[in-house]
Amino acid sequence: MSEWTIDTTVGELLRREHGREDGARITEGWPDLDLGTAYRIQDALLARKASAGQTVVGVKLGLTSVAKQRRMGVDVPLTGWLTDAMALTPGEPLAVGDFIHPRVEPEIAFVMGARLSGPGVTAEQAMGAVQSVHAGFEVIDSRYRDFDFALPDVVADNASACRFVISGHAVPPGGLDLAAESCRLGVDGDTVDTANGAAVLGHPANALALAANGLAERGLAIEPGWIVLTGGLTDAVPLHPGGTVSVAFDSLGALSLTGTH
Ligand code: OOG
Ligand code: MG
């Protein structure tokens, strides 16, 4: 494509998503794509999904842990939108063939009890707006070949968002030590990684505050009832048909996700 605009980029990213096809970085053809414009692309992509009937159910953070930043080669956290069409119910399998190259990552998820509106939100204020804490999995599926992107590319691509699931077990935030909360990630029963909540910007509440303050720059807030995924604690693992990825947290319980054809 010769002329990249917000509209043509949205069209191209949706074409890849629907066609299960990856492609080159947008910044290859649009090298001066800046972060502000990339978020406008992300919002325009959401508007297209909303006009197709999807509703926003929350927000995700990405690249909040060193494990993720290192793997993706981008060390700036970002946010993306979660819609109802992305939600899996616990136990529901993932039809791997419906996606490009899905990977699964364990996350600490919040369900919000109160509105959280920046700027200037502190981690303490952020935690005060949380209704419950859950074990979560995010399935990411970059619309870029080999997950190869620069920051503006991945922002435009709604932070590689694809599917997510949170456990039905709602843990009240009071009494939890989320920095110390540890998880064990398993693939087909073998432990492949471990991490604790401190991996996420020192504490997942810092990620929540960052999201609220970042959205405020776009005139937006985190709304009651929304789900917030605070970012992968470990590197993501590929999901294959017949494979199972599982996570066991100390206090938040366990989750597993099985791939089918
Ligand atoms: C970008 C999204 C990162 C996380 O939890 O860090 C993300 C990617 O890795 O493709 O969702
Ligand atoms: Mg994630």
Pick out its properties:
261 residues, single chain, globular, binds 2-oxoadipic acid, seven-stranded mixed beta sheet, Fumarylacetoacetate hydrolase, domain 2, binds magnesium ion, five-stranded mixed beta sheet, alpha+beta
Give a description of the structure:
This protein has 261 residues and is of the alpha+beta class. It has seven helices and twelve strands. It has one domain (6-260): Fumarylacetoacetate hydrolase, domain 2, CATH 3.90.850. Strands 1, 2, 4, 5, 6, 9 and 10 form a seven-stranded mixed β-sheet that branches. It has a five-stranded mixed β-sheet with strand order 3-12-11-7-8, with no helix packed on it. Helix 1 (6-19) crosses helix 3 (35-51). The radius of gyration is 17 Å and the shape is globular. The protein binds 2-oxoadipic acid and magnesium ion (MG). The site of 2-oxoadipic acid has 16 residues, from strand 1, helix 4, strand 5 and strand 9.
The structural domain count equals: 1
Quickly count the helices.
7
> N- to C-terminal separation?
33 Å
The whole-number mean of residue pLDDT values reads 97
Strand proportion = 25-35%
The structural class is alpha+beta
Give the C-alpha Rg: 17 Å
CATH class: Alpha Beta
Biggest sheet features: 7 strands, mixed
> Cofactors and ligands present?
2-oxoadipic acid, magnesium ion
Shape: globular
